[in-house]
Automatic annotation (TrEMBL):
Pfam families: FG-GAP_3, UnbV_ASPIC
Signal peptide bounds: 1-21
Membrane-spanning parts: none
Domain ASPIC/UnbV: 526-593
Name the record gives this protein: RNA-binding protein
PROSITE patterns xrefs: PROKAR_LIPOPROTEIN
Lineage of producing organism: Bacteria, Pseudomonadati, Bacteroidota, Cytophagia, Cytophagales
Keywords: Signal
SUPFAM superfamilies recorded: Integrin alpha N-terminal domain (SSF69318)
């Protein structure tokens, strides 16, 4: 066999082994495309971090057909390099992408610091004009925004422009970030919203009272088009009043009422803004009412229906890195006090990560409900991010997500910041010179731009490497368009100090539809119109708005990916005046033009309000109770806690306390605040009633309570568990309390009939476990106070005619220190007529104590099930004759993801031997176990560790093996958690169970309590869930995505989530408990308790 033959045989194989796998996008060089623009930023005495804090924020790009040749053209803004314009001269038949620089020929001016750019037909002549925002450390005309009016293209195809911002009233000289044109007042012409920032505030994170009257340095502006080519500032009259630091702007219809709203993302401390259109020329800011929280350093945003349910969702980006080292180098202490001060001063909850707010529609009280699901969706961390763009890049019918990343200098480096602070304290006069010189030494934060493929289940897959590779850049503005008219969306990205990206999409063959709009005479491009398509039963909806992402605007051509569908069943466009047009059976793979002249007056059918399963009757019943919570900050003593342990109530208990045949209920109290009975009247109202002498000071925290017949006198007595984390172990305020009923609802303190209990409790469950005729008590131990994660002390109290004794050791040697218990119940898991004990808790497995004639032995029914379990409920859901369970856990919408191979762990010991317990939590990130706390928090808890980690850089790289020695780990109490999901535990018989995760909606937030009932009366048991947790440490942020959930059972062990618009059940606060009360009229009231908020009451139907 000769050499030539061998080469012929193996050359294709060798080439395939050495070639890089083909990515979805191909980065085209400037030598091929003709696009050589580079946004240049070079620090100098005028433009530097000290004198102009937005010096590194980059610039934008706009895409649109500027010469009406059906090819998208490009406009790049430059900070110091001047703007550049390119017309598209691509030859589609040859498959080339080619552009020509026409900046000078077109009449584009150089000079000034350009930021955002948007395209709009401002003068309604059918030609796209260009509006450029200006900023920078300039004054006067160099900071005046520019409006380039399109004069049309000559025979050479080159359009020319005339700068006319002054004539149109749009030569604004504030520090501008971006603009958007839209018809907010529905008068037919385009108005303009101007997004602004400021350079006048030296420390934009300093807490000051928010300025919400329009007088702030950087309140945005609204310009109304007077119909005669003149724009008038109507900001104050229209309600655009809130100060900010704007970086992201989207025009949208959040509430689906046909009137355009405005969403603004603000950097630093100012709240993000959601201006809802009032239909009368004014707006109302509703971000705090609609969104539970938002990003801390909000950059760009995009508002789009990413899950194809017809509602506008919100994506905002921040600067949370995906790797541990960068996170530790930029994250300071978890300052809970500062967080509280911010909230009390008027700021919203803010956390440093990307946010994906899923729009759930309108609640019965008129709010638009959102659940922030960025962490469970997998898009919460993408480095220092700028432009998020939702678009269907692979044409499968689902909008994917692109995010541009990078920053010219790593100014968040905490070693750099701490040195600056130290220098300022020593030598204030030279700080400016020092900061300028030091910032030049900082490296660039070059990163890969991220792609996330939409999986169609509210989650995304990170496809960055597969779709783009690993090219590093400092990227800011970005826009999408089908540059080569091949049916898929390409990307254009404006980079800092690097040539701009032209990213050609080489998506495999898939079907698509592109749509051009010919709108009303003064809105030729149809801004604000909405197009909906239906293909194979699936909806896609697009709101025509081009200002998206960061400092940029996308192409006006609407694009839908269709996957395998070769035909669209139907299409509807609704224009801004409400007129509509419907088309059917439209072939795919074409560009369709929709003309306003073909629209007819829309006749919307009257929507009949569907009857829901529940009605909110809170205001109709006489249940007025505001739970109080005395301020106690656990982090003052235990800095490293992942969440507070002192904010667990209120819980409730239901029973007929006065033997009148009507359900009454009790709501627990807190330190200094007594709980209350609510006694039902025959009219179905409720009267508050005290259970004890409230003139005495109250030191206990009521954690849980139960009504049961403790003394066999045929009435319900009250047992209250004492707990919390506010006192040291052994405190008298951890003593549980017993109150005996006289049969008429009057109670006498009988705590003396209980054994002494001096340990923090969590739950109570009663059963006649020994079959002696009276009800015994399991009392769970939550924790050892101030010694996290030490187990609590649990008790089994044996009842002897109302006198209780500690029977724990006699019943089981493993029960007292079973773990950090949160909930328990007695059920017969194996049908042997003896009630077994189920116990769940934090860092605990689902634990089963098998009852063998009054003796409890721990079984291994749920191996490796350690989690953050909050609650357990049980019933025969699959109708097979044995008892199944549902279990509430922390869920998946959290920064910390853990599993059997990569658990979340806490190492607890007194490492510095100062008499204070130290619990150090860890988690895995990119395959390595790292400490969760920031360096500041670790050193506040363990000052002696400063020698080990003298600066932030040394700590940022540390794994747990470098934080703790081998000896320290051996001496520590180690608790691990493997399971995050809330679960259904199917009883397989003979004490065997299998765990199955509940639906994704049940994983959006911690489940705190569940109620089992057949709510729709179909004969199958359903599960009502309430949850959230506002007490988490402020770096990771509170859990608040739950709005209440009803899981409809199918009678076979399956559950399907019922959305609130079908159930009417909305419980979206910091919910702690849910109970059901039967009324005198045989109805059911479902009562939900919330921490620091009133009870909510729902009537069943």
């Amino acid at each position: 066999m000769n050499l030539r033959f061998l080469l012929f045989l193996f050359l294709p194989f060798l080439l395939s082994c050495n070639s890089e796998p083909k990515t979805l996008f191909t980065l085209l060089p400037g030598s091929e495309t003709g696009v050589t623009f580079q946004n240049t930023v070079i620090e100098n005495e005028q433009f530097n971090l000290y004198d102009f804090h937005n010096v590194y924020n980059g610039a934008g790009v706009a895409v649109g057909d500027l010469n009406n040749d059906n090819l998208p053209d490009l406009y790049f803004t430059g900070n110091m390099s001047g703007d550049r314009m390119y017309i598209n001269i691509s030859d589609n038949e040859k498959g080339s992408l080619k552009f020509q620089d026409i900046t000078d020929k077109a009449g584009i001016h150089k000079g000034g610091w350009s930021t955002g750019v948007t395209l709009a037909d401002v003068n309604a002549d059918g030609l796209l004009d260009i509006y450029v925002c200006k900023s920078g450390n300039y004054t006067g005309s160099l900071r005046a925004n520019q409006l380039y009016i399109n004069q049309g293209a000559g025979q050479n195809g080159v359009p020319t422009f005339k700068e006319m911002a002054q004539q149109y009233g749009l030569a604004d000289t504030t520090y501008s970030s971006q603009a958007a044109f839209f018809d907010y007042d529905k008068d037919g012409d385009l108005d303009m919203y101007l997004l602004t920032t400021t350079n006048l505030v030296r420390n934009p994170n300093r807490i000051t009272v928010p300025v919400n009257d329009g007088t702030g340095y950087s309140a945005d502006k609204l310009y109304e088009n007077d119909g005669n080519a003149r724009f008038i500032d109507v900001s104050r009259k229209a309600g655009i009043l809130h100060d900010g630091n704007g970086l992201g702007l989207s025009i949208c219809d959040i509430d689906n009422d046909g009137w355009e709203d405005v969403f603004v993302s603000n950097d630093f401390l100012p709240n993000d803004l959601l201006y809802i259109n009032n239909h009368d020329g004014t707006f109302k800011e509703m971000a705090k009412e609609y969104l539970k929280h938002h990003s801390r350093f909000s950059m760009g945003n995009d508002v789009s229906d990413f899950n194809n349910d017809g509602r506008a969702d919100i994506m905002m980006v921040d600067m949370l890195p995906a790797n541990n080292e960068q996170r530790k180098m930029m994250t300071g202490p978890g300052n809970f006090e500062q967080y509280e001060v911010e909230l009390n001063t008027g700021y919203h909850s803010q956390f440093m990560r990307n946010m994906l707010h899923l729009n759930l529609g309108k609640s019965p009280d008129g709010r638009i409900l959102f659940s922030e699901i960025g962490q469970i969706a997998g898009v919460h961390s993408s480095q220092w991010s700028w432009a998020p763009l939702f678009a269907d890049f692979d044409n499968d019918g689902l909008r994917d997500l692109f995010i541009s990343n990078g920053y010219l200098r790593d100014i968040t480096n905490l070693d750099f910041i701490s040195y600056n602070v130290a220098y300022e304290q020593k030598n204030l006069g030279n700080l400016r010179r020092y900061m300028i010189d030091r910032s030049l030494e900082l490296p660039s934060w070059n990163d890969v731009n991220c792609f996330f493929r939409n999986k169609g289940d509210l989650t995304f897959e990170n496809t960055t490497k597969a779709w783009f590779g690993d090219s590093l850049s400092v990227s800011n503005g970005a826009a999408y368009a089908d540059l080569d008219n091949d049916g898929d969306l390409d990307l254009v990205v404006n980079n800092t100090n690097k040539p701009a990206y032209i990213m050609r999409n080489d998506a495999p063959t898939a079907n698509f539809l592109k749509i051009l709009l010919k709108g009303r005479p003064k809105n030729r491009y149809g801004l604000g119109s909405e197009v909906s398509i239906y293909a194979n039963g699936y909806l896609q909806k697009y709101h025509q708005a081009v200002t998206k992402g960061y400092a940029s605007s996308v192409d006006y051509t609407i694009h839908f990916g269709l996957g395998k569908n070769t035909q669209i069943d139907s299409l509807e466009i609704v224009w801004t005046d409400g007129k509509a047009q419907k088309l059917k059976n439209i072939k795919a793979n074409q560009t369709l033009t929709l003309d306003y002249t073909n629209a007819t007056t829309a006749t919307k059918p009257d929507k009949q309000q569907e009857a829901t399963l529940f009605a909110d009757v809170t205001s109709a019943v006489n249940i007025n109770f505001q739970p109080q919570e005395e301020r106690y900050v656990d982090y003052h003593v235990e800095t490293l806690l992942l969440h507070k342990l002192s904010q667990q109530g209120p819980k409730m208990a239901v029973g007929d306390i006065n033997n009148d045949g009507l359900d009454d209920f009790f709501v627990g109290g807190s330190y200094k605040n007594y709980g209350k009975f609510f006694v039902q009247t025959p009219a179905g109202q409720f009267i508050q009633k005290s259970y004890t002498n409230e003139s005495l000071p109250k030191g206990e925290e009521d954690i849980e309570m139960i009504l049961f017949d403790a003394d066999r006198d045929k009435d319900l007595d009250l047992y209250i568990v004492s707990g919390s984390n506010e006192y040291p172990d052994g405190s008298k305020y951890y003593q549980d309390r017993l109150y005996l009923n006289d049969g008429k609802g009057n109670f006498t303190d009988a705590t003396s009939q209980l054994p002494e209990i001096r340990h923090s409790g969590s739950c109570v469950a009663v059963a006649d476990f020994d079959k002696d005729g009276d009800l015994d008590i399991f009392r769970g131990g939550r924790l050892t106070p101030l010694q996290y994660p030490q187990s609590g002390e649990s008790y089994l109290l044996k009842n002897d005619y109302g006198i209780f004794s500690n029977y724990t050791a006699q019943a089981s040697t493993e029960l007292a220190k079973v773990g950090m218990v949160t909930d328990a119940l007695w059920i017969d898991i194996d049908n042997d007529t003896w009630l077994d004990l189920i116990v769940v808790g934090e860092f605990m497995p689902v634990t089963v104590f098998k009852n063998t004639q009054g003796k409890l032995s721990k079984s291994d029914a749920f191996p490796n099930s350690e989690g953050f379990w909050n609650t357990v409920a049980a019933a025969d859901f699959d109708k097979d004759g044995d008892i199944d369970m549902v279990l509430g856990n922390i869920g998946l919408n959290t920064r910390y993801h853990f599993s059997l191979n990569e658990p979340l762990t806490v190492y607890g010991a007194d490492y510095d031997e100062n008499g204070h317990w130290d619990g150090i939590p860890s988690y895995y990130i990119n395959g390595k176990e790292h400490p969760i706390p920031t360096r500041d928090d670790l050193l506040r808890q363990l000052p002696s560790f400063r020698k080990k980690f003298p600066n932030y850089g040394s700590y940022a790289k540390a794994t747990m093996k470098e934080v703790l020695t081998e000896l320290q780990m051996k001496q520590a109490i180690i608790k691990k958690a493997y399971v995050q999901e809330s679960m259904y535990a199917e009883n397989l018989g003979h004490g065997k169970f299998t765990l199955k995760p509940l639906s994704q909606m049940a994983q959006w937030a911690p489940v705190q309590r569940m109620l089992i009932d057949d709510v729709n009366q179909d004969g199958n048991l359903d599960v009502m869930m309430v949850g959230n947790a506002y007490d988490a440490e402020p770096i990771a942020g509170r859990y608040d995505a739950s709005v209440g959930l009803v899981l409809m059972g199918d009678g076979k062990g399956g559950f399907k989530p019922a959305l609130y618009d079908k159930t009417g059940f909305v419980a979206d606060g910091d919910c702690k408990d849910i109970v059901v009360v039967k009324t005198a009229s045989k109805n059911k009231l479902y009562i939900v308790s919330q921490n620091k908020a009133p009870l909510k009451v729902f009537k069943g139907k």
